[in-house]
Predict the 3D structure of the following.
Amino acid sequence: MNSSLFDRALEKGARCERLTREEAFALAEAITPQRLHRLGEAALANRQTRFGDKASYVFNVQINPTNICGSGCTFCNYAASKNAPHAYVLTEAEIFDKIDRLSPTEVHIVGGLNQIWPYARNLELVRGLRQRFPDVHIKCYTAVEIEYFAKTSGLTESTVLDQLKAAGMDAMPGGGAEIFSERLYQKHWKNKTSPENWVRIHQMAHGKGIPTNATMLFGFGDTWTERIEHLLILRRAQEVTGGFAYFIPLPFQPGAGNFIAKGPTPLETLAVLAIARLVLDNLPHLKSYWPMTGLATGAAGLSWGADDMDGTISEERIAHLAGAATPVGLAREMMAETIRMAGFTPLERDGVFTFQGGAA
Ligand code: SF4
């Protein structure tokens, strides 16, 4: 255990300075309870320098058009085959009605890979949403879906992104990255986007002026070395294109327990948040994603480096079909109150990742 390297990493991280690769790895070496709390302190100092006591959220709605997917990722509790009892398909009318009813600031669209909702239908959906709801922020389709749309439509990924942007796409979500590990990629999701292609598609989007988020799935057999490598890959990618807005660590949801018995503990989730805040000096925002961390750990994450709690996420399906025990949506007031009780000042933001003004 290298204490001086760990101490130096904490001091530099607390001051929002760039950590060397060795310092980044030292943060995750032998995490004892004492070290864990020092990590939290450094991450809190860092986020206070960046954001003071503000913590943001957005009034958003998740649209998951269908869970039918043939990609066969081993860890997925969300996907269904066409005839499975839990398979569902939404229609355009149902989606428009939901947006009309809830009037969210942001719509987040992701779904399974299938030909029931093929590329042309998704493109029309974005166009239809933009026509009906000109002010809504449309964050849609992971790099996995962009790659699939290109493969199945015969278009290039670049053309797919251009067409979606012209139709009304404002930003891309960060899902599908899983963890940048060739070992786990070959084992668990080799039918979909590789780590290299995920980064390449996001950088392509940045080049077209489309901001994106980034995620990391952890707690399903990954190592701390793989997690730190993931953060360093993102930091390097951000240096080139600068288009990542939020980093969102996603603790694995064990669901029925047939893949892995338990997901990460709350303290492990908080350690990942703190280390991410200290390593990703060039990525502006860090999200504590409450549907997968649980509301209490999500709120605690604001003291461990996070500055955002995502959103109200009315009727979220992916984390919940995977077994998340959190509510499927939170009222605006409940979100603001949760942030206040965690000791921060809640700010409702717009979809384009800027604060809307005074405390909610
Ligand atoms: S993780 Fe995504 S791509 Fe993989 S099986 Fe599930 S829905 Fe399909």
User: Anything to note?
Assistant: Strands lie at 54-58, 60-63, 106-109, 137-140, 212-218, 244-251, 285-286, 308-311, 345-348. Residues 69, 71-73, 76, 78-79, 112-113, 144, 189, 192 surround iron/sulfur cluster (CB under 6 Å). The chain has one domain: 55-349. Residues 55-349 form a domain with the TIM Barrel fold (CATH 3.20.20.70).
